[in-house]
Specification:
Elements (H helix, E strand, L loop, with lengths): L1 E10 L2 E10 L2 E6 L8 E4 L4 E4 L1 E6 L4 E2 L2 E2 L4 H10 L2 E8 L6 H12 L6 E7 L7 H13 L4 E5 L10 H14 L2 E5 L3 H13 L8 H4 L2 H18 L3 E3 L5 H12 L4 E5 L1 H5 L9 H4 L11 H13 L4 E2 L8 H6 L23 H10 L5 H15 L17 E11 L18 E11 L2 E5 L2 E2 L16
Parallel strand pairs: 1-4, 1-5, 6-9, 9-10, 10-11, 11-12, 12-13, 13-14, 14-15
Antiparallel strand pairs: 1-2, 2-3, 5-16, 7-8, 16-17, 17-18, 18-19
Helix pairs in contact: 3-4, 4-7, 7-8
């Protein structure tokens, strides 16, 4: 037994003083002044006790052309634990594999390696024309414990689907309860803009925002939302990056469409200025959608506070400096920004970075926990196991020290990359103890009794 004593509990039940008793892998009791003879005690005085973080957007061990994302399921989930995240949802599939092949491959990547619990979304690039066959595919996914799919409106060469495919997916989702997620950037428009930018001899990373401007995000959100309305299905927009995209989500919500959205820490803390400067440095800030302006970041913070944006995830997809330099085509060095593999690290830093919004009075403590744990659990079929401090749920618990200081330099973190987008930044507030299904996997931001293979696949059903 383990007793977390004297902390301030924060979850959907509110903010209150209390204790948490853990027996085995589950929470046995939550309440004031719990006494348990023989239990090990964690003194949480002065700390916040919260449900373990849930990151619903990671890309571990993902091949991207000639290179691969730097973290696999072992290093990525150890880093997650050090930063207070106790469950991740990764995207299975790297292109146009059959669903069975994608899930088989991703289970093999994760099994015996993950240090915290995990689940999968499926990347979908085709949907059967016949409604009964499309519904059968989605019901088969639910049987596999996969309750969400992702369709790309970008990357025509390997991932993009057309409107008819997205419409079929949404129609099947309406009948089955599978949640459709979309990467909302218009791929054809981006290809045209990229060609124009390159033709003007702008080849460095600072040209990326011109090739992927906010309007291509906003237009794709509006288009996907119209299709969701016609199907009568909810829609989840991943990695929202701009004020224009946010307003498109708001417009859909005002129209009565169940438009859900996530954003990521990079769009809250970093701006497109990072894409200027020496190309070999600015290449490390390439992601899609690209970094935007401070005005966009401020708008997204407001969207988090007012409930327009539901979740903060990471889109964790880091690359080493050497792999950035090689580019997706391989060789000695990329020649244009379009060849730089896109993605940033974040699975370890998300919880603390978002807490800075509490310190800056942009978010309440309850909203912080909702965005990082409660809403992810509810929206993605995990609420029966995770996302709350409640008797009978998995003992995924974080004791968060609001006064702990940590620099976000690459050398101080555990993600397997040699650079940090937040290099030189110091945050106030970091997990003192991370408990995953009753096991103390991190203390003071360092691995503790962490064991590759402790993490289990968590089957999910319809919300």
């Amino acid at each position: 037994m383990l007793l977390i004593k004297g902390g301030t509990l924060v979850d959907e039940a509110g903010i209150r003083a209390g204790d948490v008793l853990i027996e085995g892998e589950r929470i046995a009791a939550v309440g004031p002044e719990i006494h348990a003879s023989g239990a090990g005690v964690i003194d949480a005085g002065g700390a916040l006790v919260i449900p373990g973080g849930i990151d619903v957007h990671t890309h571990f061990d993902l091949p991207v052309g000639a290179v691969r994302s730097a973290d696999d399921f072992e290093s990525g989930t150890v880093a997650a634990a050090c930063g207070g995240t106790t469950c991740v949802l990764d995207f299975a599939g790297a292109g146009r594999e059959a669903p069975e092949q994608a899930l088989l491959e991703w289970h093999a990547k994760a099994r015996g390696r993950a240090a915290v619990d995990y689940g999968f979304h499926l990347t979908v690039t085709s949907v059967p024309d016949r409604p009964d066959e499309a519904e059968a595919l989605f019901r088969w996914l639910l049987e596999q414990g996969v309750a969400s799919v992702k369709l790309y409106l970008a990357y025509p060469e390997r991932l993009m689907v057309d409107d008819a495919t997205l419409a079929r997916a949404l129609a099947a989702a309406a009948q089955t309860g599978v949640l459709v997620c979309v990467h909302a950037e218009g791929g054809k428009a981006i290809d045209r803009l990229t060609a124009d930018v390159l033709a003007s001899r702008r080849t460095q990373p600072d040209a990326l925002p011109s090739a992927r401007p906010p309007e291509v995000e906003a237009e794709a959100v509006r288009r996907a939302a119209r299709l969701a309305a016609q199907a009568g299905a909810p829609l989840y927009v991943v990695h929202l990056s701009s004020a224009a995209g946010l307003e498109a989500v708001r417009g859909a919500q005002r129209a009565g469409i169940r438009a859900l959205a996530e954003t990521c820490p990079q769009y809250l803390f970093l701006t497109s200025e990072r894409l200027s400067g020496p190309p070999d440095v600015s290449a490390n800030f390439v992601c899609a959608p690209p970094l935007r302006t401070k005005a966009d970041a401020d708008a997204l913070w407001a969207g988090l506070a007012d409930g327009t944006v539901d979740v903060v995830a990471t889109d964790h997809c880091p690359f080493t400096t050497a792999d950035r330099a090689r580019g997706v085509l391989g060789g000695d060095r990329w020649s244009t920004f379009a060849q730089i593999p896109g993605g940033l690290p974040g699975v370890e830093t998300r919880l603390s970075l978002l807490y800075q919004g509490v310190r800056q009075e942009r978010l309440s403590p309850a909203r912080w926990v909702e965005l990082s744990s409660g809403a992810p659990a509810r929206l993605f079929g995990l609420a029966h196991r995770k996302g709350r401090l409640a008797e009978g749920l998995d003992a995924d618990v974080v004791v968060f020290d609001p006064l702990a200081r940590r620099r976000l330099d690459a050398g101080a973190l555990h993600m397997r990359t040699d650079h940090s987008p937040y290099e030189g930044m110091e945050v106030l507030g970091w997990p003192a103890v991370t408990i995953a299904r009753g096991r103390v996997v991190a203390r003071g931001g360092e691995p503790a009794d962490v064991e590759p293979g402790w993490g289990r696949f968590v089957p999910r059903g319809p919300r």
